[in-house]
Design goal:
Elements: H1 2-35, H2 41-62, H3 72-95, H4 98-105, H5 108-119, H6 127-147, H7 152-175, H8 181-205, H9 222-248, H10 251-258, H11 260-271, H12 279-297
């Protein structure tokens, strides 16, 4: 029996790692959403970056990176895109529900297909991919339209979050050819920490209100510091388990399993008493997830 369990685990550990990663992401998002009642999105970016960075730097000191280097602009690009994407993620979480935010996040394969077509030579979209791109974008319209009254900027930020994630993945794909994956993660955490520190200084000392780019520092209680620590550790878990999943399973399968983050988010919202989104929004979420999966399969 033990051997059978071990064999099943070995054959499916890539899927298991991605399920754990998706659960970590959903829990991290739920914590961020709960903290957004007192903290602006910029301060949440600060917490997210400040917690994870020391762990990664310690790892690099204990086990130095072996890499070719020579393409520093990929690291810089990844850092800038990563920081901007973190701003979009936490701003969207602050103003929209978990499931909607994570659905926008899972739309990134749609934008990867489009950006690859324009940015990568000889990259072509098949007729089937174009069809599922349209399916995915129709799903986004269903999410956007019934909920967009007075919230168009929040939904637009969710779409930009998906676009930033797509560009970030393309940058990672190139950067990892020359740099250790830990340095790639350090780049966007470091950029997020620097950017959020500047934004908090502008908001706090310049007396600017909480917005997408500025935030007023609120001193956490001891329990809130603990929540910030857990949020940062969950974010590290997302990075680690996603990497392990990609090492042990095909990218298309990992991408499909990654859509479980939406399911976990809906379950968490129901458990918190927020209920299900409307029928049209649920349909739109399903179309986005399905279209994104089909596009990523090529």
């Amino acid at each position: 029996m033990q051997k059978k369990v071990h064999r099943v685990w070995y054959q499916n550990k890539g899927i298991a790692y991605m399920l754990i990663s998706s659960l970590c992401f959903a829990l991290m998002s739920a914590l961020a959403k709960s903290m957004s009642d007192r903290f602006g999105s910029v301060e949440l970016v600060f917490f997210r970056s400040a917690v994870g960075l020391p762990f990664l730097l310690t790892s690099l000191v204990r086990r130095p990176a072996v890499q070719k280097g020579g393409k520093l602009y990929f690291i810089i690009l990844r850092g800038l895109l990563g920081a901007f994407t973190l701003y979009c993620l936490f701003y969207t979480l602050e103003h929209l529900g978990l499931s909607l935010t994570n659905t926008y996040g899972q739309a990134f394969p749609l934008f990867i297909a489009i950006f690859s077509f324009f940015l990568i030579p000889n990259e072509r979209l098949s007729g089937k991919q174009v069809l599922f791109l349209l399916v995915g974008f129709f799903g986004i319209l269903l999410i956007f339209q019934p909920e967009a009254t007075g919230q168009w900027f929040n939904h637009a930020t969710g779409i930009i979050y998906a676009m930033g994630t797509a560009l970030g993945y393309l940058a990672i794909k190139e950067a990892q050819k020359y740099y250790d994956s830990r340095w790639v993660v350090v780049s966007f955490m470091g950029a997020g920490l620097i950017a959020s520190t500047i934004s908090l200084c502008l908001g706090t000392f310049g007396e600017m209100p909480n917005s997408f780019f500025t935030g007023h520092w609120v001193m956490p209680t001891p329990f809130e510091w603990l929540k910030a620590l857990v949020m940062g550790l969950l974010a590290l878990g997302v990075q680690y388990f996603t990497t392990q999943a990609l090492l042990n399973e095909k990218t298309s399968i990992v991408g499909a399993v990654g859509n479980s983050a939406v399911v976990f988010s809906i379950a968490i919202e129901i458990a918190l008493g927020n209920g299900l989104p409307s029928l049209l929004v649920c349909l739109g979420m399903g179309l986005v997830v399905w279209g994104s999966y089909q596009v990523s399969r090529k």
